[in-house]
Amino acid sequence: MQYLIDQARVFPARVAAHGMNLSALAGGHRPRALFVSCSDARVVPALLTGIQPGDLFELRTYGGLVPRRDTQALSGEARTIEYAVEELKVSDVIVCGHSRCDVASDAVRGAEALPVHDMSWPDDSALALAGDDTAAGQWHTLAQLDALSGYPSVIPRLADRTLRLHAWFYDVDTGAVFQYHPRASAFLAL
Ligand SMILES: [Zn+2]
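Above: inputs. Below: predicted complex with zinc ion.
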């Protein structure tokens, strides 16, 4: 804990040393994208993307889970997504899964079928992927993106092409990042 405290104390000095001007963000933020990922400590979106403060709106959850939209009980996750899409009007959403994600593996083993909205996802059954952790993690990532694509705020923005959805997969062993290509039905290196 002391390391975290020490780092936070010198943060203003580090910001100044890197030439960042935080006061420019005092009036608000216009992030480039919404980044949805697992809370896993090995996944560090700011490091992956090289962003500055103000660049990325983040939603980090257990396993990167995106709940299906439920109008009866709007969850914190749903509020985060709606705010990013409706208020901040981000142009891109990145759902980033990762290798060695126990949550993803467990979720895939417990899944039966992937509901499909209007995007092209692989039709492999969850059961067939359960033995391969990387394939399971990637399938899980697409399932979260699929859930997100069903949000009322997302649907019209996909229809008028003002919002793009991306599925990324981060290899915690190497730092490599892969992106899903629907036409290839595969995650390919960025
Ligand atoms: Zn994870």
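The helical segments are 2-9, 11-17, 45-49, 76-87, 102-110, 126-129, 133-148, 154-159.
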